């Protein structure tokens, strides 16, 4: 006799299935032919539609649960070849609700009790896990879509910023987009050098000119003059038809004198460029020469945001601005007129000629008007230091700038040390 003959078969099966009674999974035990011998209570709770599954073929049970036929066949094949099988995801509809289970089954072998040789397995309810996974995937998809939207909005903003940059001076553009100028009442009093220019007889020049040629003329003129203003560090306030308003000393300043010198150099550069452009325009069929009047004045102005709730301008206001406009108005073609305050700032480096004493409109006292003829290049030495690679060139015109030069050298030294530390 065999040992198994001394024991009650039902009790042995019951004892071997003991660990599955209180399991949170839906457990089953079937014989080698896949006839179900035992299920735990959770099996019945999970799949109430099955009713009594004793002696039913497990493959039929899977089909009754609505498991895909391909999955059933795969289960049978894997169990036959590998003696174990794991189906990680079985979607089932139970009591009208979508649920997800995984099924793990394995063949058992017991040399002592042959009737324990069969197949045991368990369904694990993974609905909550897969719902979390789906939610994570949904959130991930939303994040991807949000990123696409953000990228598209970023491209739109970059495109808008590029277009907007054409309407603003670089300094004002940086000021606005850095967030440093956010409030309507952001203004201050500063000593500025103001430049005003206008084309003499521009209305007469435009009469009879084709719109396309006129657009070419004015756009070329304003583009060239703007490039020169930016090159010399001027802040372009606005274009008023063919007139140009530029100021020096805000948002950045190099000191009253250097601001005035930079403005004077810009005006001379503009006058030189206008002479060159005459030949270009003549080659394009524009025969009438363009002659520009320029006025420069220095004084305390109010600078900042001015306008309404719908539209703001970052601009300058004050009598020095009006004086620059008056000087331009009385200037002769291709000449640059300076106010007394500007001449005093640059008299050691400028060649100026007293033109006359005038009482400009809106002013109660006569003022001296000076024509700027040239700048003494040898005298313009108190410009900022320049760096080429890791070399520094220093030029100091007077002792008042020595302390500033020392501070600048310290700053340069710190930058170079940091650069050396970062080198491999």
Descriptive notes:
It is built from 12 helices and 15 strands. Residues 381-390 have low confidence and may be disordered. It starts with 8 loop residues before the first helix and ends with a helix. The longest helix has 39 residues, at 127-165. A hairpin with a 4-residue loop joins β1 and β2. It folds into 3 domains: 3-125, PAS domain (Beta-Lactamase, 2-Layer Sandwich); 185-380, 2-Layer Sandwich (Alpha-Beta Plaits), CATH 3.30.70; 383-424, no CATH class. It is α+β, with helices and mostly antiparallel strands.
CATH topology of the largest domain: Alpha-Beta Plaits
Distance between the termini: 84 Å
Largest sheet: number of strands, sense, barrel closure: 8 strands, mixed
What top-tier CATH class of the largest domain fits best?
Alpha Beta
What is the N-to-C order of secondary-structure elements (H for helix, E for strand)? HEEHHHEEEHHEHHEEHEEHEHEEEEH
Instruction: Name the structural class.
Output: alpha+beta
Approximate strand percentage? 25-35%
* Average pLDDT: 82
CATH architecture of the largest domain: 2-Layer Sandwich
Total tally of structural domains: 3
Pick out the low-confidence regions.
381-390
Give the strand tally: 15
Question: In one word, what is the shape?
Answer: rod-shaped
Count of DSSP helices?
A: 12
Percent of residues in helices comes to 40-55%
What is the CATH superfamily of the largest domain? Nucleotide cyclase, GGDEF domain
Please give the radius of gyration in angstroms: 44 Å
């Amino acid at each position: 006799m065999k040992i198994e003959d001394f024991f009650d078969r039902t009790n042995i099966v019951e004892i071997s299935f003991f660990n599955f009674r209180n399991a949170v999974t839906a457990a089953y035990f079937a014989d080698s032919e896949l006839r179900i011998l035992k299920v735990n209570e959770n099996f019945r709770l999970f799949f109430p539609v099955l009713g009594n599954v004793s002696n039913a073929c497990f493959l039929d049970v899977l089909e009754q649960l609505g498991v895909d036929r391909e999955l059933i066949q795969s289960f049978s094949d894997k169990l036959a070849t590998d003696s174990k099988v794991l189906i990680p995801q079985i979607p089932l509809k139970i009591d009208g609700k979508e649920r997800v289970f995984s099924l793990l089954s394995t063949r058992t072998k017991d040399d002592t009790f042959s009737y324990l040789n069969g197949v045991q397995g368990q369904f694990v309810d993974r609905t909550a896990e897969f719902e979390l996974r789906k939610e994570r995937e949904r959130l991930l998809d939303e994040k991807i879509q949000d990123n696409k939207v953000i990228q598209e909005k970023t491209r739109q903003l970059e495109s808008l910023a590029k277009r907007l940059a054409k309407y603003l001076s670089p300094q004002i553009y940086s000021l606005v987009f850095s967030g440093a100028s956010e409030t309507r009442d952001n203004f201050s009093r500063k000593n500025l050098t103001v430049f005003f220019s206008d084309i003499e007889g521009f209305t007469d020049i435009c009469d009879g000119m084709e719109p396309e040629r006129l657009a070419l003329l004015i756009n070329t003129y304003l583009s060239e003059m703007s490039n020169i203003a930016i090159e010399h560090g001027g802040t372009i306030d606005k274009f008023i038809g063919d007139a140009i308003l530029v100021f020096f000393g805000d948002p950045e300043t190099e000191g009253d004198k250097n601001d005035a010198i930079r403005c004077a150099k810009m005006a001379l550069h503009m006058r030189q460029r206008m002479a060159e452009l005459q030949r270009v325009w003549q080659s394009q069929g524009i025969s009438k020469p363009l002659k520009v009047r320029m006025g420069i004045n220095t004084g305390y102005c109010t600078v900042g945001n001015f306008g309404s709730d719908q539209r703001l301008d970052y601009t300058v206001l004050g009598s020095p601005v009006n004086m620059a406009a008056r000087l331009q108005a009385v200037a002769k073609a291709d000449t640059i007129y300076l106010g007394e305050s500007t001449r005093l700032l640059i008299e050691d480096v400028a060649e100026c000629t007293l033109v006359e004493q005038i009482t400009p409109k809106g002013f109660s006292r006569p003022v001296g008007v000076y024509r700027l003829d040239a700048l003494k290049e040898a005298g313009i030495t108190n410009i900022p230091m320049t760096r080429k690679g890791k070399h520094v060139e220093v030029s100091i015109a007077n002792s008042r700038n020595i302390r500033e030069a020392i501070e600048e050298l310290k700053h340069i030294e710190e930058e170079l040390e940091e650069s050396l530390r970062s080198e491999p």
